[in-house]
Amino acid sequence: LGGGSDRGGDKFKFGVVTSLSGDLRFGGEVTRRGYDLWKKTINENGGIEVDGSSYEVELTYADAKSDPSTGADAASQMITSEKVDAVLGPYSSNVTLAVAPIMEKNQTPHISGSAESPRIWEEQYKHTFGTVPTVTLIARQAAEEILSLDPTAESVYVSGVNGPFSKATASAMRDAAENKGVEVLAYDLNPSDTDWTSVVSSAKSEDPDLHFHGGHIGSHVSLLKAADQLNYDPNGFFCHYGVNTSDFKDGLGGDASGTFGATVWLPSIERTGGKLFGSAADYAKAARDEFDQSPDYTQAASSAAGIVYQQALEELGAAPPLSDTEQSKLVSILEDIEVQTFYGDVTFDKEGDFYHNNTTTSPLPVQLQGDDDEAVVVGSSASASEANYPVSE
Amino acid sequence: MGTENDLTVRDRFQALLGRDDAHLWLFGIGAVVLAVLPFALSTFWTRIALGALMWIGLAQSWNMIGGYAGYLDFGHGAYFGVGAFVTGIVMVELELPFVAGLLIAGVFCAVLAYVVGVPTLRLSGAYFAIATWAFAEAIKELALILEITGGTYGMTFPTGPGTSGIPLVGWPDEMFFYYLMMVLTLGTIALAYFLFEHSEFGFRVKAIRDHEDAAQSLGIDATKIKRRVYVISCVIAALFGGANAYYITFIHPNDVLAPIITDQMIIMALLGGLGTIGGPIIGGVLIFLLNRLSSLFLGNTTIYLPLIGLLIMVTVLFAPSGVIGILRGEVGREDVKQNLRELAEKFDIL
Amino acid sequence: MVSTELLSQSIINGLLLGGIYVTVGVGFALVFGVLEIIDFAVGEYVMLGAFTGAIVAPMVGGEGLLVVPLAFVAFFLVGVVIQPFIHHVTTGDRPMPLLMGLVFTFGLATFMRGSILTIFGPNTRNVPTNALSGGIEIGGLGTFPEVRVVTAVVGVLSLVAFMYYLYRTTGGTAIRAIAEDRDIARLMGVNINRYQSIAYGVYAGLTATGGVFIGLIYSAGPGMGLQYTAFAFFMIVLAGLGYLPGIIISGIVLGLAQSLTAVYLGGELVFFVLFGMIYVLLLVRPEGLLGKGEVA
Amino acid sequence: MSADTPQQTSRSEASPPVLRAEGIVTGYGDHEVIHDVDIQSHEGITCLFGPNGSGKSTLLKTLNGIVPIWEGTITYGDVDLSNATPDEIVREGIATVPQGGGVFGTLTVEENLRVGGFTVSEQDAYRRRREEVLDAFPALEDKLGDRASSLSGGQQMMVSLGRAMMTGADTFLLDEPSAGLSPALVEDAFELVERLVDRGARVILIEQNVTAALRLADHVNILVAGELAFDGSPAELSDEEELMEVYLGL
Amino acid sequence: MSETLLQTDGLTKRFGALTANDEITLGVDRGEIRGLIGPNGSGKTTFFNSLTGFYTPDEGTVTFDGTDITGWESHRIAREGVGRTFQIAAPFGNMTVRQNMLAVQTPKSVDEHERAQEILEFLDIDHIADDDASGMSGGQKKLLGLGRVLMLDPECILLDEPTAGVNPALADRILEHLRELNDRGTTFMIIEHDMDVLKQIVDTVSVLDQGRHIVQGTFEEVSTDDRVREAYLGSADDDEVPV
Ligand SMILES: Nc1ncnc2c1ncn2[C@@H]1O[C@H](COP(=O)(O)OP(=O)(O)OP(=O)(O)O)[C@@H](O)[C@H]1O
Ligand SMILES: Nc1ncnc2c1ncn2[C@@H]1O[C@H](COP(=O)(O)OP(=O)(O)OP(=O)(O)O)[C@@H](O)[C@H]1O
Ligand SMILES: [Mg+2]
Ligand SMILES: [Mg+2]
């Protein structure tokens, strides 16, 4: 028992608190792949360079088990027993909201590569940062673009799961429609394990042009299956989060084609590129080599979180282990940082509702197309493909 | 070694338990050890210890209504959650300190438990179990749609100096919560001991558990006694809920009102030994540590889930009186063999 | 703007949803009423059935319906092997046998759920079917999803088959005799181990079969069982404990309450209304909606 | 009344085998209740008396297989039943009428009989036995479709005895068949037992209604604290004044 | 001096279509031992349940010592002074025999432990005082039921077949003790099927048939009453074979 051993100073040590078991294990695994790939690549490149000498990166994991209080204990374990220099954060807002106060108490820097809920940033935690733009931005911007597809939609049915992330998503979708002057026929929140035929029946009787849905993968699958069973087909479904995951595609077993989604990053995307991985395509290749599957934006954002630390540490110029003052300094550096990565440009807001959230990376609408349901960017951006719209199967 | 050589650890334990003042001694020694413990532990381990203390207390609170009174409360966790939210609402909306929040949560849950108890305790057996379960689920769903609980966005507690309402401690750190949980848990254990093991009240509660009609015919006011036990045990759960919420600083209905909270209390009480003082202590520590520390030993896998499942099944099969039964020598090698033989007979299905 | 089409569609949805609950409730009512087992693993049999569908269907030409007989037989056998354990912990000189059975099956459920999660991961999986997709539109009434209709029919048919077995055959009579007094049934020469195992096996097989259908309707995931456990309990309470035919009524009531609440009161309220309703009904009518159950 | 002219079946012509238990030791958990007891089924009615808690029911339950024995042997004729299960014992021809009758209250009378005839696989044999039972207890004929719980105590006792007869047994183990019955029904119950004997069966009978039971007894055992205190004929018992007074209250 | 202690007036209890107690009007005098007989299913146990608050009577009243106790909760009735036993033994199975005794809500003044020991010795179950009650034999459970109501020490005790299944030698001693208690002022009402027992102990007998109170009188009067013979005694005191 007792505290962790005094660690040597030859490596930067990062604690990762994420859900490796429990309901959120799927998302937790995605973040883990992102963090791992960053670590592997940077160590192959010799490590983080500080004042001419390089230091390798070490990751140590603690399982939050999808439970906030376990997450808080895990965070404490990272800081007091493992004595890490900084923390890479969990998946899901509930766990993040329990972990963040521990970071405040111990004044330890903390970047999440996956948390998207606006709730986190409203709390104005000084030590917590996030590389994924909040869903309020992602869902809204993607929705607005989808609403602009031709023929322009005149009405939309918004449904969602009554969960913190999902509700924020659905309400962002609704805001987008209201912004564009499109009639919102309903804003219909449901428990995640409800029977979605009720939503589908209500929607069908309203006969909207588009159906927007905020939720996690399980609810998308149930919703779309119910729509199929009841012969409900609007011009398109826009679901967020996770249409570009194997979980979603497997869950629907081939019926996923045509579904719209939102993302901030795709393997095929054009980004300035920068540190560690030259381009999105480079990153995607490295990820496929390592894990045998395509990365999604959560994984990319998790790797980007590592890259942000990397640049911040270089700027800090202190060798590991970091002292308390160095950790505080690292936080101030993060506040002002500007990093160019394969994932996009990353900066953190310094005030407002999105305090410490990276709102720079721009969101894009995507659609699953083709035989293997590849996600392609649609909409108005330069590189966008032609959308299949109104969706025909 | 001397002549005590022949005594096994179990014999000694039994000898100790056999003494009239054994309980007092155990309690005293335990309290002293607990009081100095955090000075020997790192913050992380202090957190683990305080978590274990909380679960011991929660398991004991369930044991009061479930083990001693025999009313299988499948909605006990509702009070843990309601305690958490009431504490939070008092702190956030009324901007009162934590201590006030906790007290108000206790009183609120006492009233709630009384009001709920009057009709619900008329049911028994599976009916009571299912009714309390449905009640707890309804409470959870309510918390998810109400405005004042933060709905599905959850609730964040105010932290920082002054929010606790206790002048001695500034910023509420792990030590503060450790001693808070210690006091609550030791208090719960002492209360359970005096109520159920050291008074005629205890016999009456058990009489109701074993045969309610007969108890009534002997002048025992079953309705009142059951209600009393129910209210006490619910208030204890609420106090732990409030304390835990302030400690975690963020609560969400899906977490503090999750059915798994109740399930854990039940499993802990049962695995340790129902209707005993020691059972929930042993069960609480065992299951909590297994849950929380499994990743230290087993790596990052979910294998601890089937393992806990197996552990529960094996305990019920071979040590129906729980781990405390093993310690008391009720479950020896012979009993296990006997059990196996009887079990084998039941496989005669052709 | 009340649309009659939406109303009739909601009623259809509710009734068919009730059919899904019936498939889960039937077996559960049997083990509860007859074997006096409160089986916490009921939802996990549903989950295992759905998973069997997801894994086996691709091997049999992507047709989930073909998995049904296999699931029944496989889980019948599983049930036959598990029953002696449950029998063992609910008899003998154990205190609170009801609780013992409950906790044992709770352990069993945790074991099942945890094993599947560990082996197959947390992902949702599709249970494919080609035979049943889409819905049949009936003008003026609404759409009847094929897969849900078939599920409801299977649920009701298994209830009828159960009733026939219990009330018209010697084996069923023996099972009812066991329900009343195990020892006396033994004294009449009934091999109670066998008959209890058969009953539990049929329950496990049927519930897993229901699981395959539920997989076809939704999908399969390791965490899906819990809500069916809750619903199974509520089914038998509303039916009146020990009263098998009541299962149909409780399915209909639960399904309609869920569907109509979602459409007319708001989706967020569905479970609040449902759980609240069950709680209140238990307080005012513990003998079930039809008043035919036994009250403890 | 048909009691006087019982239907002779092929079974009752030869006297049934002797059910013999020797050196029986058993109990519950670690607690030994029966200490080395011998008992057997004599011709006619063998009564088993004794104080409360002396182990009468326990001893009977070793004979029907509900309570396993720790030591000793149980034989039926030349069949060894020492470790047999209740259903094997029933199949050998030994039936039990549990204390209070133990009818299945939620089942109909007909269904009770069906469960009684559970071990009879042959349809003809089943029907023949059912005839015999209804012959012996004509009062049941009208009640076949009624729930057994709706019957009066005496009728329930008939169902219980009839159900035992359905098994095809010729040795009957009866645990206090008269307890709780009104005087008229006590008479009935004893009369029913006598009818069984008239049909050639052997009966082991536990009774606290000693006076009435002694009138029927062909043989008497007295069990005291798990040991046999007396084993002999009623006539011999009347010489044992102390036994009679202390244990039987006579 | 004969003064009515327990009085029912038109007491009626129905179960669906069945009227288990049909307008029973019956008074028990202070200090007497009243027998209550009737065929199986005639409503005797139901009558006790209605008297002691386990059933709420559909009609009629119960008065005890001048107080109307109709509809009271059973524990209140017990504390008021009406104790009872159960026809089917109802021990607290997971407690020891002694704890069963100590659970009883006794008046504050008595030394419960001493009293419990005395009663257990008298009933001949003191040797198993510290064993679990669930392991007792059928008769022993009945004795414990009696022991517990003696702990309660009420003014009036209702006994539901106290000697059924009890060994005759012990039954005699129980009756003797009841008589002793009666001498000291306790009033009894006893349901009993054994005519020999009744003859020894009761002052008067009430007879129920099909839920109705048909006769009341001394043992002699009742046992020669035609209605009673027909409904209840059958051939017991008669040579005619019942049909
Ligand atoms: N299931 C049991 N578990 C433990 N002990 C038991 C059990 N059943 C009976 N005993 C004990 O065994 C002894 C004998 O009990 P048994 O029921 O055989 O007595 P009995 O002679 O039939 O008495 P009675 O005339 O009261 O029915 C008693 O001391 C009783 O306490
Ligand atoms: N709770 C109940 N619900 C329905 N019917 C009942 C209930 N209790 C008793 N009865 C019925 O009421 C009638 C009277 O029963 P009760 O138990 O009072 O008879 P009893 O005179 O005590 O008979 P016994 O001498 O056999 O004990 C019976 O027909 C019985 O079936
Ligand atoms: Mg007996
Ligand atoms: Mg009675």
UniProtKB/TrEMBL annotation, chain B:
Its main location: membrane. One of its GO terms (molecular function) is branched-chain amino acid transmembrane transporter activity. Keywords: Cell membrane, Membrane, Transmembrane, Transmembrane helix. One of its GO terms (cellular component) is plasma membrane. It is found in: Cell membrane. Coiled coil: none annotated. This is Amino acid/amide ABC transporter membrane protein 2, HAAT family. It comes from Halorientalis persicus.
TrEMBL record, chain C:
InterPro entries: ABC_transp_permease (IPR001851), BCAA_transport_permease (IPR052157). GO terms for cellular component: plasma membrane. Coiled coil: none annotated. It is found in: Cell membrane. Keywords: Amino-acid transport, Cell membrane, Membrane, Transmembrane, Transmembrane helix, Transport. GO terms for molecular function: transmembrane transporter activity. The chain crosses the membrane at residues 12-35, 42-60, 66-86, 98-120, 149-167, 198-218, 230-256, 263-284. Its main location: membrane. It comes from the Archaea. It is a multi-pass membrane protein. Pfam families: BPD_transp_2 (PF02653). GO terms for biological process: amino acid transport. The keyword Lipid metabolism does not apply. Belongs to the binding-protein-dependent transport system permease family. LivHM subfamily. PANTHER family: AMINO ACID ABC TRANSPORTER PERMEASE PROTEIN, BRANCHED-CHAIN AMINO ACID TRANSPORT SYSTEM PERMEASE PROTEIN LIVH. This is Amino acid/amide ABC transporter membrane protein 1, HAAT family.
Automatic annotation (TrEMBL), chain D:
Keywords: Amino-acid transport, ATP-binding, Nucleotide-binding, Transport. Residues 19-250 form the ABC transporter domain. GO terms for molecular function: ATP binding; ATP hydrolysis activity; branched-chain amino acid transmembrane transporter activity. The keyword Nucleotide-binding applies. CDD domains: ABC_TM1139_LivF_branched. SMART domains: AAA. SUPFAM superfamilies: P-loop containing nucleoside triphosphate hydrolases (SSF52540). GO terms for biological process: L-amino acid transport. It comes from the Archaea. Pfam families: ABC_tran. InterPro entries: AAA+_ATPase (IPR003593), ABC_transporter-like_ATP-bd (IPR003439), ABC_transporter-like_CS (IPR017871), BCAA_Transport_ATP-bd_LivF (IPR052156), P-loop_NTPase (IPR027417). Belongs to the ABC transporter superfamily. This is Amino acid/amide ABC transporter ATP-binding protein 2, HAAT family.
UniProtKB/TrEMBL annotation, chain E:
GO terms for cellular component: plasma membrane. SMART domains: AAA. Keywords: ATP-binding, Nucleotide-binding, Transport. Residues 6-235 form the ABC transporter domain. GO terms for molecular function: ATP binding; ATP hydrolysis activity. Gene3D superfamilies: P-loop containing nucleotide triphosphate hydrolases (3.40.50.300). SUPFAM superfamilies: P-loop containing nucleoside triphosphate hydrolases. This is Amino acid/amide ABC transporter ATP-binding protein 1, HAAT family. It comes from Halorientalis persicus.
